[in-house]
């Protein structure tokens, strides 16, 4: 039966009109970490609307996660919300099995989206901020991928998609712990792709400016978007579409797709502008 529903996010919305295509995603369980808000919510909505059964991981956003799961079920999809603190290694190790049990399906698609974005800098580094970034951006995704691989039955394949950041291709010293931990996840993406082949492919998405951050006013966000090469960032629907592309492309592994409007290519820097060479 055709489904028509709109998934709302904090700053944007999109509508998906589709059938739930059995040939495309039948018996595919998905775990999306940080799936109750913002980009994670858009990913959950897109995958659910295309027939995937989705486990929505939340930490402090269970109310939003349960509301999203209920909306998906009402539309004819399959979704559950699960709470876990991924900074706790034991909770991270247990999450895949909890998701499989709740869905009644193997987790064959893992989207490591949960993230923290706290400002720090060299000269003012704090242990708790450093440790939280690396626990959430590196240790938890690796433990989840390891657990997913261990839980898959013989003959089943899978895909891990790590949500990283375009800045791993164009680093700067701002948000130091965040940037360094995301760079570590990019390296983990490639080494996991080697370690888990041939059954599991591991890829990444590098977002650029998509939604204003918690610290950012709308006018500053628009200035940022206006300064990148394409003068526009990704839409929320781009993320689910890209993940579904990676799901279908069985020969792609160890890659990152930058959904950033060309931000990682920005070249109009002070060492070039207005300087004769």
Summed up:
By secondary structure, this protein is of the alpha/beta class.
Please tag this protein with its features.
alpha/beta, Rossmann fold, two-stranded antiparallel ribbon, 9 strands, oxidoreductase activity, SDR_fam
What is the residue-mean pLDDT, rounded to a whole number?
A: 91
Report Rg: 19 Å
Give the count of helical stretches.
Answer: 8
Sum up the overall morphology in one term.
globular
Strand order of the largest sheet: 5-4-3-6-7-8-9
What does this structure look like?
Helix content is 40%, strand content 18%. With 277 residues, it is α/β, with parallel strands linked by helices. The protein has one domain: Rossmann fold. Strands 5-4-3-6-7-8-9 form a seven-stranded parallel beta sheet, sandwiched between helices. Strands 1-2 form a two-stranded antiparallel sheet. Strand 1 and strand 2 form a beta hairpin. Helix 2 packs across helix 8. The longest helix is centred in the middle third of the chain and has 25 residues. The radius of gyration is 19 Å and the shape is globular. The N and C termini lie far apart (64 Å).
Secondary-structure blueprint:
Elements: E1 3-8, E2 13-18, H1 22-25, E3 29-32, H2 38-49, E4 53-58, H3 62-74, E5 79-83, H4 89-103, E6 107-112, H5 127-151, E7 158-163, H6 176-196, E8 200-207, H7 218-226, H8 237-248, E9 256-259
Parallel strand pairs: 3-4, 3-6, 4-5, 6-7, 7-8, 8-9
Antiparallel strand pairs: 1-2
């Amino acid at each position: 039966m055709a489904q028509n529903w709109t998934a709302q996010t904090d700053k944007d919305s999109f509508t998906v009109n589709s059938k739930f295509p059995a040939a495309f995603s039948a018996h595919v369980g998905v775990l999306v970490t940080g799936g109750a808000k913002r980009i994670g919510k858009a990913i959950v909505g897109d995958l659910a609307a295309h027939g995937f059964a989705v486990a929505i991981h939340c930490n402090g956003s269970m109310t939003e996660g349960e509301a999203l799961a209920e909306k998906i079920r009402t539309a004819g999809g399959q979704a559950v919300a699960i709470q876990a603190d991924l900074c706790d290694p034991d909770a991270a190790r247990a999450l895949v099995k909890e998701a499989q049990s709740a869905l009644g399906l193997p987790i064959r698609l893992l989207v490591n989206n949960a993230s923290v974005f706290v400002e720090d800098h060299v000269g003012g580094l704090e242990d708790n901020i450093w440790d939280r970034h690396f626990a959430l951006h590196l240790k938890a995704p690796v433990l989840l991928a390891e657990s997913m691989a261990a839980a898959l039955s013989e003959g089943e394949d899978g895909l891990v998609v790590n949500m990283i950041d375009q800045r791993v291709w164009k680093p700067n010293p701002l948000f130091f712990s965040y940037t360094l931990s995301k760079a570590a996840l990019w390296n983990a993406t490639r080494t996991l792709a080697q370690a888990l082949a041939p059954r599991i492919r591991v890829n990444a998405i590098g977002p650029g400016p998509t939604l204003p951050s918690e610290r950012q006013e709308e006018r500053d966000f628009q200035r940022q978007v206006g300064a990148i090469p394409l003068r526009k960032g990704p839409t929320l629907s781009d993320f689910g579409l890209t993940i579904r592309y990676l799901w279908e492309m069985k020969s792609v592994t160890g890659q990152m797709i930058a959904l950033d409007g060309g931000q990682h290519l920005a070249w109009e820097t002070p060492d070039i502008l207005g300087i004769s060479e």
